[in-house]
Write a structure and sequence with these properties.
By secondary structure, the chain is mainly α. It has helices spanning 3-19, 35-50, 52-62, 74-88, 94-108, 113-125.
């Protein structure tokens, strides 16, 4: 398993968290063999839950009027949340995180999502 796959699992947990604030957090269900990657998934998802309100506020401030967080495609919303958590709280390299966010958007979201994700994250972190 790679860090990219671990990030993908954290994205899936975060997506579920957006619908149900008490998701099934059983990381044991994921096909994670590497303990370090399992710990990364847990650390990232715990970071999302702990800092959710602050992340949402930062994200809302970066969305251009008249959009609100409710207007964002839920898959994109989850990708943005884990990306902000990684950069702000886990101190991961912003370039790597943005590239991984775009990769997740290409895999799971709409055709316009990679550009949207890149634009939002770039506007936050490339000031």
């Amino acid at each position: 398993m790679s860090r990219s796959q671990a990030r993908e699992y954290a994205f899936k947990l975060t997506f579920e968290y957006l619908f149900n604030k008490q998701p099934d957090e059983n990381i044991e269900e994921f096909d994670i063999i590497n303990v370090d990657e399992k710990n990364f998934v847990q650390e990232l998802f715990d970071c999302v839950k702990t800092n959710f309100d602050d992340i949402e506020q930062k994200l809302q401030q970066s969305i251009k009027y008249p959009k609100t967080l409710k207007d964002i495609y839920t898959l994109d919303h989850a990708i943005l949340i884990i990306s902000i958590a990684e950069i702000d709280y886990l101190k991961q390299d912003k370039g790597v995180v943005i590239n991984e966010a775009v990769r997740l958007a290409k895999r799971y979201s709409s055709d316009k999502s990679p550009k949207f994700i890149n634009g939002v994250l770039s506007s936050i972190y490339n000031k």
